[in-house]
Amino acid sequence: MMNLRYPSLNEEKIMISQLAVTPLIALIAGIIILIMPRFLNYIVAFYLILIGLVGLFPQLFA
Questions:
Q1: What is the domain extent for residue 43?
Q2: I need a labelling partner for 49 at 20 to 30 A (CA). Which of 13, 24, 40, 55 fits?
Q3: In a domain, 3, yes or no
C-alpha cells in the first residue's frame, strides 16, 4: 500500500535541489555585478537562462 502522506525520496530530492540552485546562482551573480558592474547585461542574461533551464528541466540539476 502506498503512503500518500509522505512524498517519495525522489520528489523531495528534486525540490531541495531546485531550491538550493536558484539562490546560489542569484548570490554569485549579485557579487559579480558588485565587483564588475560593466558585465551586468551578460550576468542577467546568463541568470535568466539558467533559471529557465532549472524550471524546464529540474531533473538535470538533481
A1: 10-61
A2: 13
A3: no
For the chain, report the end-to-end CA distance as a whole number of angstroms: 27
Q: What is the number of domains present in the chain?
A: 1
23-49 per-position pLDDT tens digit:
888 888 889 889 988 888 998 999 899
> Do residues 3 and 43 lie in contact, with contact meaning Cβ atoms separated by under 8 Å?
no
> What number of helices (H) and strands (E) belong to the chain?
2, 0
In a domain, 4, yes or no: no
pTM assigned to the model: 0.54
Reported as a pLDDT band with limits 50, 70 and 90, residue 6 is low
